[in-house]
Structures are given as C-alpha cells and as structure tokens.
C-alpha cells in the first residue's frame, strides 16, 4: 500500500533521511532532524514522504513563497526517489500531490532547480510538464 503524508513528527522526519541523503550525501543523520525542524520554523519548509510497503521510497521538501514576478508559488527544494525503487512512479505521485497542494494553497506555479549534470532527473521533469525557463546564477561568498 502506498501512502503520501507530510513528515511532521521527529520520527517521521528521521524516516526520510536515508532517501534524502541519496540526493544530499553531505547530510549527517544526527543533524538531519534538527536541521529540518529549523527550516520548518524559519522558512516554512514542509517534507512530503511517499511510503510503499511501510518504507519511505520518495521524499520532497518544499516551501511556499511569494515573488514579485509571479505571485505565490510552490518551490521544491529537494525531490528524490530511492535509488533501489526508481521507475515505479513514486516521483510522479509526489509531483501530482505537490500540484494538488499548490492549487489548494493558491499557488500559480511550481518551481525547482536541478543541476545541469542531472540529466535523468531532467528527463523526468520534462515528462512531468516542467520547462526550462531561465538560467539560475550563483556565486560563492567568502565568509
């Protein structure tokens, strides 16, 4: 049985770590729940988890924000399916749930960024109706 639910308790958040770490290998398990909790409090981050047969198979971290150029939008920070269970529709199910959530929250669009090297992810996003609209520029700041 497949379920899609927001990870809200520390236990639910912790259960998403192994899948999230596949996308973000720098994350440390002991710091993961406090980091997610901090982002939830400061930035309104939400974590959506797809579980199949009782195990988390895909995770999306997202937030809702308002921008001058497009109004209210749902921004996907992270979207990852477990490498052991890819191509089973889990990512598409999360995108579908995020579309529903975005509409319910009055968002005009969904946005995300994806590294240029992630060609397999790009093919998935194109299949899901996403388009490349702009370049994303960044520069490192010396601290």
Write the topology of this structure:
Blueprint: E1 2-6, H1 10-15, H2 17-23, H3 29-43, E2 46-52, E3 55-67, E4 71-81, H4 90-104, E5 109-112, H5 119-127
Parallel strand pairs: 4-5
Antiparallel strand pairs: 1-2, 2-3, 3-4
Keywords, please?
143 residues; alpha+beta; Aminopeptidase; 36% helix; acyltransferase activity, transferring groups other than amino-acyl groups
If strands are numbered along the chain, what order do they take across the biggest sheet? Answer: 1-2-3-4-5
Helix tally equals 5
Kindly provide the radius of gyration, computed on alpha-carbon positions and rounded to a whole number of angstroms: 15 Å
Form type = globular
Structural class: alpha+beta
The biggest beta sheet reads:
5 strands, mixed
How many runs of DSSP E, i.e. beta strands?
A: 5
CATH class: Alpha Beta
The SSE order reads EHHHEEEHEH
What does this structure look like?
With 143 residues, the protein is of the alpha+beta class. The protein has one domain: Aminopeptidase, CATH 3.40.630. It contains five helices and five strands. The chain has a five-stranded mixed sheet with strand order 1-2-3-4-5. A hairpin with a 3-residue loop joins β3 and β4. The longest helix is centred in the first third of the chain and has 15 residues. The protein is globular, with a radius of gyration of 15 Å. The chain starts with a strand and ends in a 16-residue tail after the last helix. The model has no long low-confidence stretch (mean pLDDT 95). Keywords: Transferase. This is GCN5 family acetyltransferase. InterPro entries: Acyl_CoA_acyltransferase, GNAT_dom.
């Amino acid at each position: 049985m497949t379920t899609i639910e927001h990870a809200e308790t520390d236990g639910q958040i912790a259960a998403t770590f192994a899948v999230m770490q596949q996308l973000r290998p720098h994350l440390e398990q002991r710091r993961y729940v406090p980091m997610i909790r901090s982002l939830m409090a400061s930035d309104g981050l939400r974590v959506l988890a797809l579980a199949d047969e009782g195990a988390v198979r895909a995770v999306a971290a997202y937030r809702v924000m308002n921008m001058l150029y497009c109004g209210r939008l749902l921004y996907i920070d992270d979207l990852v399916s477990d490498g052991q269970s890819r191509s089973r529709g889990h990512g598409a199910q999360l995108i579908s749930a995020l579309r529903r959530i975005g509409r319910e929250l009055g968002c005009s669009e969904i946005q995300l960024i994806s590294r240029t090297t992630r060609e397999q992810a790009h093919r998935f996003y194109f299949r899901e109706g996403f388009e490349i609209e702009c370049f994303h520029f960044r520069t490192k700041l010396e601290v």
